[in-house]
Amino acid sequence: MSSHTATPRNRDGLRVAVVGGSLTGPTAALLLHHAGFTDVTLYEAVPASAPLGGGLIGLEHSSLDILDQLGVPQHEFVRYDSEAVMDITVCRRRPEAEHRHLFAGRNTTWTLLHQALTRRLPAGLAHTGKRVTGLTGEYGRPLLHFADGDSAQADLVVFADGRASIGRRLLDPDRRLHYAGYVAHRGQTSTSQPGLRDFLRFEPDPHNGMQFNLAPIPGGCDWTFYLSATPAQYLDYFGATPARRVFVLPQHITEAARAAVDASARQYLPDEQAALVHDTSTRMAAAVMDIDPPTRMVWAIGTGHAVLLGDALAPVRPHTARGANNGIEQAAGLAAALSQHRKYGADLATALDGWQHRQLPAAVAAVQLGPKLAHRYGLGA
Ligand SMILES: Cc1cc2nc3c(=O)[nH]c(=O)nc-3n(C[C@H](O)[C@H](O)[C@H](O)COP(=O)(O)OP(=O)(O)OC[C@H]3O[C@@H](n4cnc5c(N)ncnc54)[C@H](O)[C@@H]3O)c2cc1C
């Protein structure tokens, strides 16, 4: 990428910069590209497509349909098409009662979905290794600044840069992340569990403060073990505070973290699941974080705009299974509003305001739902 020069708007009337190349960012970029916007650039901080989250993600029908309309066939990112969820009550390490219900959606993994999206991005649209460090208004339009000294002008900056969003820190600095007091420990096994097709949720006595989820993924299975951890324990397990290391990659899992998870598995889970945890070598973790509900999604920067969406807007607790869904739905709503502007001359500020008005309630509801769900399992404050 070359250094900054002021560039005129093209025929579409809108130069769009998308920040973040995980799930929400590529979805937004693809939707805008499909809607006819030809001046879209995506900036991702991580140099190449290094693995980030990796784990299981449940997508609801609304998100699945948006992906379908983008021409991303479901079989590319859904390898196990079971809709069944088994809630299993565990008492003294024994499965006691099972309740089966259906999920209005399908399970994918971050890796499968990320690949399906990014392989469709037109050549030259995505720029990796570009960490955004600042946003100013210059010549009446937003100007992004990068860690490598470059800058890039846009009419609209779409921040889809996740929980620790620089966009949120710049635009909405009072909304900070707070550690919720527990961790989503994650593991991926390299051998599959015979007969495992559904999503299993083990629910021990809520006084224990834990929950264990298990589902099949290509080549093995994926588990998430929610366990309480004080900030000091978090530092001991992962070498940094929850605010500094929100996502913990395999190389940052210490022996102390492994031992603590194994001990909890032995203490609370049935033998089969405890053994599975013990035998899992690839482990990750995510700090469960809270944030004040958002009150806005759009900011005027000179004659241009900046918006927040996905986890950048509102990271939600994982039990809600809404994070990726929110990002995809918000991206689709944004593309619809911008299409009205491009095709029919709708006033841009009003179109963005309408988008915010439609999307905010769902984001607020998901932020508020997380602590309620966690309370059922005795997790967090
Ligand atoms: C245990 C667990 C289970 C979950 N289960 C579900 C589920 O079932 N359903 C669901 O919908 N969601 C689920 N989620 C949430 C889901 O994973 C996230 O909501 C989703 O990944 C957010 O996507 P995103 O693209 O908005 O942000 P992220 O995935 O966080 O991506 C942000 C991107 O921005 C980049 N970036 C960051 N800063 C900068 C910068 N300064 N400059 C440039 N680039 C930058 C990052 O490198 C990253 O690629 C779960 C999460 C966890 C932890």
Explain how this protein is built:
It is a single chain. This protein is an alpha/beta fold. It folds into two domains: 209 residues, FAD/NAD(P)-binding domain (3-Layer(bba) Sandwich); 141 residues, 2-Layer Sandwich (D-Amino Acid Oxidase, Chain A, domain 2), CATH 3.30.9. Helices cover 31% and strands 30% of the residues. The protein contains ten helices and 19 strands. The chain has an eight-stranded mixed sheet with strand order 5-4-13-14-15-12-17-16, sandwiched between helices. It has a six-stranded mixed sheet with strand order 7-2-1-11-19-18. The protein is globular and about 65 Å long. The N terminus is likely disordered. The site of flavin-adenine dinucleotide has 36 residues, from helix 1, strand 2, strand 3, strand 12 and helix 9. Pfam families: FAD_binding_3. InterPro entries: FAD-bd, FAD-dep_Monooxygenase_BioMet, FAD/NAD-bd_sf. It comes from Paractinoplanes ferrugineus.
Brief digest:
This protein has 10 helices and 19 strands.
